[in-house]
Design a protein that fits this description.
This protein is of the alpha+beta class and about 270 residues long. The chain is built from 7 helices and 15 strands. The radius of gyration is 25 Å and the shape is elongated.
Length: about 270
């Protein structure tokens, strides 16, 4: 997953007082994700250290009464442009900051009093449709996501392309292939396998499929795993071919839709590996 994070949380010394807000647990939980550091105030050209600032009557003012609103808004616009370029799945921002605060910010009295509200960049990012989370809430959310749950399983991309076909006799089945899904009824013998393993002489075939595997072993009592996944793809007008085994489920989509399917699943909250 691609995550944009306030740079001070990662240990960069860009805080107003020249320090940082390094969060060791957050950094640990971010391991394995693509992390994009951002500091809107630095992007706006403000120095480090700098006089602390708060939002006062809709304008960012520093403690000395100097209006620094233009620099804050310029930096927020630069940070938003970076987000639009990188398209992070998630943005995690430092609490209470006039740039990055989510849900709460200081009230402009420089007394440490909080009020409901969002920082300049946080508000812009939310209005642009990004998922934005306060740093104090992010660790718990990341911890939940780091452990696969029955209702929110991890998905793994399968390499290569697959073929869905009908074979004429069971002797044509590539049973020694890595992937060989067979369905035999009184009307047909269907086969799903990697294209390179498919027999040449088939009754019908459709090439050009790529797949995802639901990771882990799914208990038979679990309900709705496949339906939730397919609903996400249906909302994005992506057709599927699903295969279930004793252990788990597989979802195939046409190769030209594969990257779009992965992005749709990520946006819905699934981890795609």
């Amino acid at each position: 997953m691609k995550i944009m994070v306030s740079a001070c949380l990662l240990g960069e010394k860009c805080k107003y007082n020249g320090g940082d807000n390094r969060d060791e647990e957050l950094i640990r939980l971010l391991s394995g994700h693509t992390v994009i550091p951002v500091c809107p105030e630095v992007l706006g050209g403000l120095p480090t250290p700098r006089v602390p600032a708060e939002i006062v009557n809709g304008k960012v003012m520093n403690r000395e009464g100097v209006c620094v609103d233009n620099a804050f808004r310029r930096g927020a616009a630069e940070a938003l442009a970076l987000a639009e370029q990188e398209q992070p799945d998630w943005i995690i921002l430092q609490s209470r900051s006039p740039s990055c605060g989510v849900k709460q910010i200081y009230d402009g009295s420089f007394s440490g009093t909080l009020k409901p509200g969002n920082g300049i960049f946080a508000k812009m990012a939310m209005e642009a449709g990004f998922r934005v989370t306060d740093a104090e809430d992010a660790a718990g959310a990341l911890r939940e996501r780091s452990e696969p749950s029955p209702s929110f399983p991890r998905l793994r991309k399968l390499s290569g392309e697959f073929t869905v076909c009908k074979v004429k006799k069971t002797g044509d089945l590539p049973l020694d292939a890595e992937f060989c899904f067979v369905g035999k009824t009184d009307e047909e013998i269907s086969l799903v396998c990697r294209t390179g393993d498919a027999p040449e002489d088939t009754s019908e075939r459709e090439n050009g499929w790529k797949g995802f595997r639901v990771e882990g072993v799914l208990d038979f009592s679990l309900v709705g795993i496949l339906s939730k996944l397919t609903a996400v793809l249906a909302e994005n007008r992506i057709g599927i071919f699903a295969v279930s085994t004793f252990n788990t489920d597989y979802i195939l989509v046409k190769a030209e839709n594969f990257d779009r399917a992965a992005e749709a699943l990520k946006a819905a909250g699934y981890e795609v590996m």
